[in-house]
Design a protein that fits this description.
Elements (H helix, E strand, L loop, with lengths): L2 H25 L2 H22 L5 H19 L7 H9 L6 H11 L6 H11 L5 H8 L3 H17 L10 H22 L3 E2 L5 H17 L4 H14 L25 H17 L5 H14 L8 H14 L3 H15 L1 H11 L10 H12 L3 H14 L1 E2 H12 L11 H9 L6 H18 L10 H12 L4 H17 L24 H8 L6 H13 L3 H5 L6 E2 L4 E4 L2 E4 L2 H11 L36 H12 L19
Parallel strand pairs: 1-2
Antiparallel strand pairs: 3-4, 4-5
Helix pairs in contact: 1-2, 1-3, 1-5, 2-3, 3-4, 6-8, 6-9, 7-8, 9-10, 9-11, 10-11, 11-12, 11-13, 12-13, 13-14, 14-15, 15-16, 15-17, 16-17, 17-18, 18-19, 20-21, 21-22, 21-23, 25-27
């Protein structure tokens, strides 16, 4: 990359938000505004290497982008009365209004967008990051990020979200969404949820830049300054929280001499501004106050844990989430002893929101170590390691587990017993898959290394309630059956004692109305296979899998019936007209064939393969998909019908 290209790249990250914000105010379409800004960037890449970087490069980019906007407006014959006004604006000084950038923040973080889309769009429009850079930061593929950004722009256009500042009660709600997005970006940089590295500094820096910018734009909002204070102080510990091998260093073990004092001072100043504004402390001001307590302590022993515990109690009243309560448990354990913290942690172990949260067993392991319950602590650290997706954190937790000596053999563990149970020769593939889902969830929730002999029915019941408490009766009973089979095989019949069978009620399937059926039968574009299958399902009232299992050699075309196992499937004239053409001279093999021959790695059983064409049997999933797609225009909600709904009304 040449020096000019590096300059352009740096300038784009600094100026893109202002340019896009100004253009959005002109064209009222954030997607179009970004395209026009990109056009200006392309012009710079083409011209500057030869002509040199202009004296005011930001103004140059803005001027070119606005000219493109005016050209677009003229071509589309919109806002003609504004041409003179826009042309006049082009001659004015090029510093865009600060309100434009604030409007862009609000539109990028609009509640109409899902959270992931808000984050991606904010980094794209306000951070100037490419889809590739965002994808690399979040360890996902570039097309997925591009889809999120494109989908977000499309949603904003479809919902006609105005490019304006909210007012009144809506302002607080919308501002809260902006703060949330910025802090989500910071958190992903500060504690990466997946990947090899513990931190992604680029995201931290981008979140800090956005937070400082927001504080300039809305200087009278205490929560914004609280957010900035929180991020500044947390970022100050970055150098101290990673060891020489990339491993995490816990707060009480960090070298506080490596904390960045400039960032701490900036955090203190932001906190003072929040306090000067006054009002009841909000979520971010309270979290910032906790960070200030840690930053003020010169040594871990000097930390004011009672004050931190009191702040967490206030935070829990505002935001009584399981994660806040877990953080409060840590503070209680430090302020009032590990037993106080453990009591609160144990009350959270049944919360479904924390079933895959690795910090729950991690915190519990810390408290158990301090109580001298080392065997239990080791199992908690092992369980935490199995739950985290971050490689550095997983290695750290496994080292903590390995560092705890276990006196003597502990007998057969839950994980070992589960693997032996699933490795039996008398289980078919479908049963192994089904049982495996149940046992993997129990191992994650209860701990892979938990001695099987120590498991109680109450523990299993709590794990079930956490994982499947809200599931349908059929799903609950399937997992219950797996535990009963596992318990019988391991001579641990008591494991399912607390799991009552739930009554299953099958909802009545609504059939397709006659008007919709007539519209379906009259479509000339339907393939012969689909028309025959759907007619047969409607006229026979047989099950979908039964009809798909039919073979050509089982057909009796004269009597309009076919043998299907121990029963018969019969049809009427509509199917009778179609079947001869579908069979087409074939004498053996599946009646309904897949679209193409199977690949070498997916050869079906001989009974499901046509010896004459080499194609396999049409799958239930593929048949269902095709029917849903074909009936979307007919179904009132636009979701399409299911094959089961083809049965005749009785």
């Amino acid at each position: 990359m040449t020096n000019v290209h590096r300059t352009i790249d740096a300038l784009w990250k600094l100026e893109s938000a202002k340019i896009i914000a100004g253009l959005t105010r002109m064209v009222h379409d954030v997607g179009l505004a970004e395209e026009l800004a990109q056009d200006a960037l392309v012009s710079a890449l083409e011209q500057w290497p030869e002509s040199g970087v202009p004296g005011n490069p930001g103004a140059w980019l803005m001027a070119v982008a606005k000219r493109r906007a005016i050209d677009h407006l003229r071509r589309s014959r919109r806002l003609e009365r504004k041409h003179e006004q826009l042309a006049h604006e082009l001659e004015q000084p090029q510093d865009p209004e600060q309100d434009d950038i604030l409007r862009l923040m609000f539109i990028s973080c609009h509640p109409v967008l899902p959270t992931e889309a808000r984050v991606a769009l904010t980094l794209r429009l306000l951070g100037g990051l490419t889809a590739e850079e965002i994808a690399r930061a979040f360890l996902v593929n570039e097309p997925r990020i591009a889809q999120r950004i494109a989908g977000a722009k499309r949603t904003l256009a479809e919902e006609r979200v105005p490019f304006e500042l909210p007012d009144g009660s809506e302002l607080a709600e919308r501002l809260s969404s902006v703060i949330e997005v910025i802090y989500l970006i910071f958190n992903e940089g500060y504690s990466a949820t997946s990947g090899d590295d513990l931190m992604r500094p680029g995201l931290c820096l981008e979140a800090l830049r956005l937070g400082r910018l927001l504080a300039e734009l809305v200087p009278y909002e205490a929560e914004v300054h609280g957010l900035v204070a929180l991020m500044e102080i947390q970022a100050s510990r970055s150098a101290a929280r990673i060891g020489p091998s990339g491993e995490p260093v816990q707060l009480h073990e960090q070298n506080r001499g490596r904390w960045d004092q400039l960032l701490i001072r900036r955090g203190f100043i932001a906190m003072l501004r929040a306090r000067e504004i006054g009002g009841t402390p909000g979520l971010y001001v309270l979290q910032a106050a906790i960070a200030v307590c840690h930053a003020q302590a010169r040594t871990p022993e000097a930390t004011d844990w009672p004050q931190i515990a009191a702040l967490y109690e206030a935070l829990a009243r505002l935001l009584p989430t399981p994660i806040v309560q877990l953080n409060r448990a840590v503070a209680l354990g430090m302020a009032h002893g590990p037993q106080a913290g453990l009591a609160l942690v144990d009350s959270l172990t049944g919360d479904p929101a924390l079933q895959d949260y690795h910090l729950l067993p991690g915190v519990r392991g810390d408290l158990l170590v301090r109580l001298g319950r080392h065997e239990e602590a080791r199992r908690e650290f092992e369980r935490a390691a199995s739950l985290t997706r971050n490689v550095a954190e997983r290695a750290f937790l496994r080292r903590r587990a390995d560092g705890i000596a276990v006196p003597g053999a502990q007998g057969v563990t839950l994980g070992r017993a589960a693997r032996s149970f699933l490795g039996r020769d008398d289980l078919d593939a479908e049963t192994i898959r089904s049982y495996g889902q149940t046992l993997r969830r129990l191992c994650l929730t209860l701990g892979d290394q938990t001695p099987l002999a120590s498991l109680t029915a109450d523990q299993v019941a709590r794990a079930f309630a956490m994982a499947w408490g809200e599931a349908a009766a059929k799903t609950w009973n399937r997992h219950r059956s797996a535990v009963r089979s596992f318990g019988a095989w391991t001579s641990s019949d008591h494991l399912a004692a607390g799991l009552d069978r739930r009554a299953e009620t099958r909802p009545r399937t609504e059939t397709i109305g006659s008007a919709q059926l007539q519209a379906l039968w009259s479509r000339p574009d339907l393939p012969l296979r689909e028309r025959t299958l759907w007619r047969l399902l409607h006229e026979s009232a047989a099950g979908v899998r039964t009809v798909l299992s039919l073979n050509v050699e089982d057909l009796d075309l004269d009597d309009r019936r076919a043998r299907a196992g121990d029963t018969w499937v019969s049809w009427r004239s509509g199917t009778a007209r179609l079947l001869p053409d579908l069979v087409g001279g074939r004498t053996r093999g599946p009646l309904f064939l897949a679209d193409r021959r199977p690949g070498p790695s997916r050869t079906p059983a001989r009974a499901d393969l046509c010896p004459e064409t080499g194609r396999g049997r049409l799958s239930y999933e593929r048949a269902e998909y095709l029917f849903k797609q074909a009936t979307k225009p007919l179904e009132p909600a636009g979701n399409g019908y299911t094959l089961r709904q083809l049965k005749r009304r009785t």
